[in-house]
Each structure stands twice: as C-alpha cells, then as structure tokens.
Amino acid sequence: MIRSLALALGLLLPLATTATATAETATPVTVALDWTLNTNHVGLVVAQQKGFYAEAGLAVELLPYSDTSPAALLAAGAADFGYLTSLGFLSARASGADLVALWATMQHETGRLVYNSDNTAITRPADLSGKVYAGFGGPAEAALIGTMIRADGGTPEWTTVTLGTGAYEALAAGKVDFTLEVATWEGVNSTLEGRHQSSFRYADFGVPDQQNGYIAARAETVAKSPEMVAAFMRATQKGYEWAADHPAEAADLLLAAGDFPNPALVRGSMAAIDAGGYLRDGSTPVGTIDPARFAAMAKFLFDSGVLKDSSGAALSWPGDVSGWHDQRWMAE
User: Fold this and answer.
1) Is 53 found in the same domain as 196?
2) Considering the entire predicted model, what is its pTM?
3) Is pLDDT at 329 greater than 80 in this prediction?
4) Minimum mean pLDDT among 20-24, 166-170, 216-220: which range?
5) b or e along 97-114 (b: 16 or more beta carbons within 10 Å of the residue's beta carbon)?
6) Could you give the CA distance from residue 21 to residue 123 in angstroms, rounded to a whole number?
7) What dihedral angle (degrees, nearest 10) is formed by the CA atoms of 9, 246, 244, 233?
8) CATH number at residue 23
9) Which of 179, 204, 229 is the endpoint of a domain?
10) How far apart are the first and last CA of the chain?
C-alpha cells in the first residue's frame, strides 16, 4: 500500500528506455510509473520487449520515476496512463482527481507485518502493544497496525520511529520490534540475506485483502480515445499473462530492460509472485478488478481517516465507488 515499502533498500535504478514501435504511424503512449522499474511492472516490460504494443500500433514509453507522483502527472495530462499503488489511486480519486482504474496487477495483498523470528515476546498481533515500530511516514501505516492489534484483542499503542528504507536493517539488527514489508520484494531480499523473520498477513487481522498495482487513466481519455485505451490495455494484459506463464523468462526480460545491482532479487521476486499466485488467481483473467474488494479497501481507508481533502480533513465515505473503475475494454 505504501510506495516507500514497495521498493525498499534503494536497489533499483531508473529504467533504460527501450524503443518498441517501429512503424511511423504508431500512436505514442506514455505511462508514468510509481517507482523505479521493478517486478510490479513486469507485464509492461514484457509487452514492450515481446512486441505486443507494437503489434497493437502503439509506441509505448515508460516514463522514469520522478518526485512527482504518477497520479499528479496523470491528472495534469503529462502522461496517458499511470501505474499507481492502491493508496495512491484511491487518495487521488477521493480528493477529486478525475481518474479511473482500468487494471489491478496483484490479485492479493503482497504487504505484511514482519518481526524477527527469535523475538519470543511476539507471537500474535496483540503482542505488538508497547513495542517499537520502524516506519516510513506513510498515511496508512497506523490504520493497518492499529486494526491488526485491535482485531487480535490488543491495545493499539506502540512507538514509531520513522526510518524509511533503513527499517529493514534496523529490524535485522534487533533495534526495533517490527515493520511492514512487501513479501515479493523485501521478503525475498530478507531470505537472500539469510534473515530469520516471521510475519502476519493483514487480511488475517481485520484489514481487507486488497488488490494492488492499478493502471489508471483520466476519465476524459477513456471517453475520448476508447480504441487507444482498449488497445493499450489488451496488449498490457497480454504482457502480464505471458509473465504469469513464463516467470523466469519474464525476469530475464526485466533484467535486460533496467539496471539492477542484484539480479537474484529480481529472479527471486518473480518466483515469489508466481508461487503466491499474485498475477493469476485461478481462472480469473489477469488484471481483473474485483468490485467488492475494491469497495472494501476504499471504505476501510475512508473509515480509518486515511483519505483526506486538500486541507487535511478526513473525507466521508461517498457510499458508492463503482464508478471509480472501468474494465469494459476486457469485454470488447
């Protein structure tokens, strides 16, 4: 849910630009990323490298991550599509940005709460009361942790030290008691580092099992350029389907597209995504948005006071968010 969690340790560098369209008549399309190139974006890279976008008549450019959020770039018309975290999209839409979600990459929550396995004082979320949390400064962290502790019968009180990506080293050194991580990235890195850590799933303790990794566009774009949107999304779906079917080969394509100091982390991440069934959930088409889970997470964030207006005041639940996502392109 939290951008700073999604790619910890600063291991990824800005992506290398890859030309994908050869026809002069190809329609240029830009995609703003939520962070430096990583396994969340694997289907976009596959669609480039395998020529799926070119076959659809598109010349797709993945814009390198910048300090400006993809939601802001998208809302300002500086990009045609944006790859956003769940929190990033819902925050932007709740605050009035005319964005619509077209896609969900991860079919289940990849985030989790982690602690050192040899810390015998922690066996359940209720034990986190009074402990020290290494945080990232994200708006949803307290809602996640408090909900989990409360759901397990504990008192939601803890001390937070904001460490950013240093949280993982601090936890490994025993300087803090727990933190949050993404199982398919930080979790893989911890295994590679030989760390012995245990975890609690958010969904086991009161937090909705959300989907994540939304691809969004402006509602105006969807209305005015439905053919382009459908072509881009279908080629993107083809890329992620190929990645789900060929995770090892997809990892190699991703490695070829960027500058990754630790190839084992990329390969391990794709293996974890495959083993966890994150891209493909049974017979459900890759990229499908589940309206019930979409609404459940939105309501959780509204009710928790995470979603705020420009003045910092918590927003009220609108009662219906079905118009916030649109997957008509799948059925066309």
Assistant:
1) no
2) 0.91
3) yes
4) 20-24
5) bebbbbbbbbbbbbbbbb
6) 53
7) 100
8) 3.40.190.10
9) 204
10) 31
